[in-house]
Amino acid sequence: MARRALPSWVASASQRIVSSGPDSFHCHSAYERHASLGVWRSFSSNPVSSPPSSSNQGPTQTQSSAPTPPPSSSNQAQTSIPTPPPPPPPPSYAATDYSSYQQTSVRRRPYNLEAKMRMKQYRREAMHRQQALAIEEEERNFQLDQSKLYQKGDPGTVQGIVKEIITVGYFMKLPDGREGLLPCMELGCTGGIPLLTRLFKVGDEITVRQQKMYDGGKDKLFAKKDST
């Protein structure tokens, strides 16, 4: 089988490679060097007596058949624009180290219902003690201001008689036979049987203004002049 004739530029390059060896840099480009290196290996294993010469063909045909060599790597390095560095990767929350959170000295106590109820009871008892102390202080220091109360003979007033003393005021019997409640707020105090007993006793008369209640309940009584 006859060997196919090589192109003129491969034949000329192969002649130079065969004569100077595979490490020669006489080729015009890396592409030509790579092609000629394969030709040199084929010639070294199966030498040809007379490879086709470029003199058989005209100079016009040689110039037209030879391809334009690509630009060299040195020219490309000079004209190439440096590429910017790639952007940093986004933060990965999966790789977050949470070990520092577990090393803190502050620890949350476990939920204990019994301890919670006991704490509520302590606070309730402390509030009751504070209220008792305030009532005791009021019992010792409270003074009734007679100038702010109705006086006997004021228009629209009646004389009520104390029938019973309770924590929040007095139950009184009125001249028309009805009963009414005089709250302790009308006297300017917070109440309490000891304090109310010190102010008025059962059977004492108090000048009050009566507001009748026709729903079956006790009448409303007012002792302050500015009460509405």
Describe it for me?
The protein has 228 residues and is an alpha+beta fold. Helices cover 36% and strands 13% of the residues. It contains seven helices and five strands. It has helices at residues 8-20, 30-45, 59-65, 73-79, 99-102, 113-141, 193-199, and strands spanning 158-166, 169-173, 179-183, 205-211, 219-222. The chain has a five-stranded mixed barrel. A hairpin with a 7-residue loop joins strand 4 and strand 5. Helix 1 packs across helix 2. The longest helix is centred in the middle third of the chain and has 29 residues, at 113-141. The protein starts with 7 loop residues before the first helix and ends in a 6-residue tail after the last strand. 10% of the residues are buried. Residues 53-64 have low confidence and may be disordered. This is S1 motif domain-containing protein. Residues 42-66 have a biased composition (Low complexity).
In short:
The protein has 228 residues and is α+β, with helices and mostly antiparallel strands. It has helices at 8-20, 30-45, 59-65, 73-79, 99-102, 113-141, 193-199; strands at 158-166, 169-173, 179-183, 205-211, 219-222. The N and C termini lie far apart (134 Å).
SSE blueprint and pairings:
Elements: H1 8-20, H2 30-45, H3 59-65, H4 73-79, H5 99-102, H6 113-141, E1 158-166, E2 169-173, E3 179-183, H7 193-199, E4 205-211, E5 219-222
Parallel strand pairs: 3-5
Antiparallel strand pairs: 1-2, 1-4, 2-3, 4-5
How large is the count of helical segments? 7
Helical content band: 25-40%
Fraction in beta strands:
5-15%
Q: How would you classify the helix and strand content by structural class?
A: alpha+beta
What is the end-to-end distance?
Answer: 134 Å
Arithmetic mean pLDDT = 75
Unreliable spans: 53-64
Radius of gyration: 60 Å
Largest sheet: 5 strands, mixed, barrel
Widest sheet, order of strands: 1-2-3-5-4
- Count the beta strands: 5
Q: Topology as H/E string?
A: HHHHHHEEEHEE
Q: What is the overall silhouette?
A: rod-shaped
Biased composition (Pro residues): 82-92
Biased composition (Polar residues): 11-22
Protein name: S1 motif domain-containing protein
Domain S1 motif: 155-225
